Amino acid sequence: MESPTAEQIDHNRGADVATVARVAGRIRANVERVIEGKSEVVSASLVVLLAEGHLLLEDVPGVGKTMLSKALARSIDSTVRRIQFTPDLLPSDVTGVSVYNQQTREFEFRPGGVFANIVIGDEINRASPKTQSALLECMEERQVTVDNVTYQLESPFMVVATQNPVEMEGTYALPEAQRDRFMARVSIGYPVPAAEIAMLGSHTQLNPLDDLEPVTDGAELRKLCAIVGQVHVAEPVQRYAVALTSATRDHPDLLLGASPRATLHLVRAAKAYAALHQRDYVLPDDVRALVQPVLAHRLLPRAEAGLGTAAILDRIAAQVPVPDHR
Hints:
The protein has 2 domains: 6-230, Rossmann fold, CATH 3.40.50; 231-326, Helicase, Ruva Protein, domain 3. The protein is 45% helix and 16% strand. The protein has 14 helices and 13 strands. It has helices at 6-31, 39-50, 65-74, 91-95, 129-132, 136-141, 176-181, 193-203, 218-229, 235-249, 260-276, 284-289, 291-295, 309-319, and strands spanning 55-58, 76-77, 80-84, 96-101, 106-111, 118-122, 143-146, 149-152, 158-163, 184-186, 216-217, 254-256, 300-301. The strands form 5 sheets. Strands 3-6-9-1-10 form a 5-stranded parallel beta sheet. Strands 2-11 form a two-stranded parallel sheet. Strands 4-5 form a two-stranded antiparallel sheet. The two termini are 35 Å apart.
């Protein structure tokens, strides 16, 4: 049997990314039946989903963070569990616990809330730091260790967490290690008046989530993630991503810069972004478009800087030379 030619390989890649874009379009349309006027937020959520990352939704109460996470979960025919983070939530409620069975006289493991394909962590920063840290292993290694026994989590696995701004009453700031495990942080923001008026008509009579049907399943999603993983990233684009994250580590206004994990997340997200735009290769513009959602929540500005991380990142992105992709 003859090996495929370069043209055939390129054609197959093009067909694959077209499939990614088509299925993602179905998910987007489904979610936007519930979340109106927030196409950029929905697109960012899809990027994280296809890049096999975790998503942090941060905003004030009542703007639809939980609604967005539920709509995304219901659009995929897979296991979904919701964990309501409260001050009295225990780490064992998240990971699971071993319980002694008096009939068999053996300990049995009862899985916690993280044993699902999509885990919705509602108001994650209202739980204690100890409970928040229960997510560290499962988010990075896709496994849970309880009583020296390790349990693997089924793929796909995604944590969609919501949190209120740290200034809100009764919140705990997420540890740096926890924030670094989220691929992207997105703020929903208030809706435009037209979208809010439309919401009054559709949400006051019934819950729009009740009519939401899955448009894909876990098996198809695994295939899409594999296709995204094959998207080509040229060496100049890789160097550009590294230059962006390296610049944050040496910046005088930042106490903590982006980690190597952040660089990896930036490139993985750029692959998904390219696939959503029906390209089997990453452009420098793809990386640049994701700098804010992927890097901003990982940085710690110095108090004397007088600038937020978003403004500092804009300055860094403006200073780092963009490679010529032609």
